[in-house]
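In this supplementary section we document a worked example of the pipeline. Step one takes a protein sequence of length 473 as its only input; no multiple sequence alignment statistics are reported here. Step two produces a three-dimensional model, which step three serialises into structure tokens for compact storage. The input and output of this example are shown verbatim.
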Amino acid sequence: MRDALSFNAVWLAETLRIKELRDGALEDTTQVARALGRGGSFAQRLVARAQGLAERENIQTTFVHWRALGKLAFAVMAIAAILTGAGLAAGALGDGTRPVNLMLAIALLLGLHTLTFIFWLIGTTASSSHASGLGTVWLWMTARMARTPQSTAAGQALVATLQRSQGLKPMLGMLTHAVWSVAFVAALLTLLALLSARQYVFQWETTLLAPDTFATITRLLGGLPSLIGFPVPADTVVSQSMAGALPANIGAGPIWSQWLLGVIVAYGFVPRFLALLACVITWQRRMQHLTLDTTLPGFIELKPRLMPGSLNTGIDAPAPDLFSHPREAGPSRPMTPGGHNALVALELPNDITWPPSGLETLGTDLGRVDTREQRHTLLSVLESKQYDHLIAACDGRLTPDRGTLLYFQALAQTCKQFHVLILLPDTMPENNRTTLWQANLERAGFDGARVYTGPANLKAQTGITLSTPHGNH
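The serialised model returned by step three reads:
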């Protein structure tokens, strides 16, 4: 079952994915530990990790900035729509010194709208995810204003998230129809203001069409507006509006004014407003089932760390109990030199010799593991090898953290018996943190009998014979 997530959560996780693919992976030990502590599905843990990194890297401010730029871009487009709508209305009516050509006025006010609306309908029903219209203009304007790398990543993540959820078309459609609705409101208000302040004479003009054709056009265009209360001029009024009959047409100005307003409302504003509502409803429905595509590059690599098989992280448990007990694969052979064993050093500094003298013959040396990528690679290697014994060494001078303990639990799933070797440099034979390591490892579910404070302690507890006995390191 797919886990529905909030749009902002998915957008944030996608932004972090794009940023890390472009700039390299971020250090996230603490964030991964917190995500594991919260539990949930892989997608929910990805979101928890992204939220933690966003707080640390101050990426939240990028989202605030991007939204502000988006609002600014829409405001600019809305102002342009107001000026355009008012300008078209004023141009359609003129200054009152000449009769208003009804056909040209309708073409001026509804022509471009009709063409773009038809194109939008075709694009909406098409299978292609390509979107066009004023929504694309808004997206381009916002991207142009957001020039920082993090803002660019946020914009790319927005588009990618919407495309995968099939939400790009309805969102850009909302913006497109909202701008057109604003333009028609401005045009209607301008028409009302001019018609209230001036006397206009309306007429039909033609060279090719028969005069009675305009009576049919008037009835057809006036049919839909009449359903919401706008009048339809009678045929006699239409005939009086023809060129040459203007003196008789002066008194018909009010009915033609209402008819023209009704045509603009019914065929201009109402379709745009209904399309806006349809886009809003479609957007909301698709966002209810929004989730992450966890198979994408940048996400799938995190699965071994965020979904280790050994973890059972109940979200209602207190923090110390979030560690589950590592699964033991059953009894295994005693650890002997040359057996099917492996050794690995986890973030071990150079002042600690690796491997310690005498341990090189105990099994396969997998080397030092320092980066996140190396951790992922190690887990993959261990899963395929299934060693009898795995000895993981750590720096005893460091304070044990949840991320390291959780990684140890993941390592414990790859072998029959897991051992932890706490090492110190020759110049520091004692350190009180070794006790802390032992306590935390036992609390995390590891058998204290397989936690060693140096090679000599390993030899004493296991009874193995090392090739070159050496003191504690």
